[in-house]
Specification:
The chain is an alpha+beta fold. It contains 3 helices and 5 strands; from the N terminus they run βαβαββαβ.
């Protein structure tokens, strides 16, 4: 069971709690986590990743085990602490302004 922490705007859109739990078979990667998230919450498709290319949206960041993994390859395995559910995979919306 993988734990995922969502920012407030995605919680609202998905009508979910701050933290969701996902069952994922196989390697635990960013792609696997996001695929499972979008399968469970189809209303999130296109919010974290582009619809067609599945590339990360520019103002979205990913954190695993306290480390920024935003620019890691999407098929790179996430830390064991994420795969075991000990720690949560975090999706964070960047803050911009002026």
């Amino acid at each position: 069971m993988v734990r995922v922490v969502l920012p407030f705007h995605l919680q609202t859109l998905a009508r979910s709690e701050r933290e969701v739990r996902l069952d994922i078979d196989g390697k635990i990667t960013q792609r696997a986590v996001l695929d499972a998230l979008e399968a469970r919450y189809p209303m999130l498709r296109g919010t974290v990743r582009e619809h067609l290319s599945l590339k990360r949206r520019p103002r979205v960041r990913f954190f695993a085990d306290g480390e920024d993994v935003t620019f890691e390859p999407p098929d790179a395995e996430l830390p064991a602490s994420i795969a075991s559910g000990e720690r949560a995979f975090m999706i964070v919306g960047a803050v911009a302004g002026g």
